[in-house]
Design goal:
Blueprint lengths: L1 E4 L4 E4 L4 E7 L1 H4 L4 E9 L5 E9 L4 E8 L5 E10 L6 E10 L3
Parallel strand pairs: 1-3, 2-8
Antiparallel strand pairs: 3-6, 4-7, 5-6, 7-8
C-alpha cells in the first residue's frame, strides 16, 4: 500500500517497516511529464535507505520504497525531478520522515 506525500509534509515510519511513498507532481508541472526522478535522503547515515524508485501514472507521479531508519531520528527526503518540457525544468519537493515505533 502506497502513501501519498506532499512537498513540506511530514510522515511517521516504523524502523522495521518497508513502505512505498508516492509524490504527486500533477499540479506543479502542468502539461509536462517527468523524465527523471532522484530521491535524496539527509542525513545520509545509512539508517534510512531508498530503492525501487520509479515514475508512474502518466509521467505525473514518482514513487520510492523507504526501508529502515534509526529510531528517534528525523530524515529529510527530497524528490528531485527533471521535466520533459522544452526547455526542461528541475523541481524539488521535500518531506520529513520521522522514525518512531508504531
Amino acid at each position: 500500500m502506497s502513501v501519498t506525500v506532499y512537498d513540506g509534509g511530514t510522515v511517521t515510519k516504523d524502523p522495521d517497516a518497508s513502505r512505498v511513498y508516492t509524490m504527486d507532481w500533477t499540479a506543479d508541472i502542468g502539461a509536462a511529464g517527468i523524465s527523471t526522478s532522484t530521491w535524496i535522503i539527509a542525513p545520509a547515515d545509512a539508517g534510512l535507505t531508498a530503492d525501487n524508485a520509479s515514475i508512474v501514472s502518466g509521467l505525473k507521479m514518482t514513487s520510492v520504497r523507504l526501508i529502515g531508519g534509526t529510531l528517534g531520528r528525523s530524515y529529510t527526503v527530497t524528490n528531485r525531478i527533471v521535466t520533459n518540457a522544452s526547455p526542461t525544468e528541475t523541481e524539488d519537493a521535500t518531506v520529513t520522515v520521522l522514525i518512531r515505533a508504531q
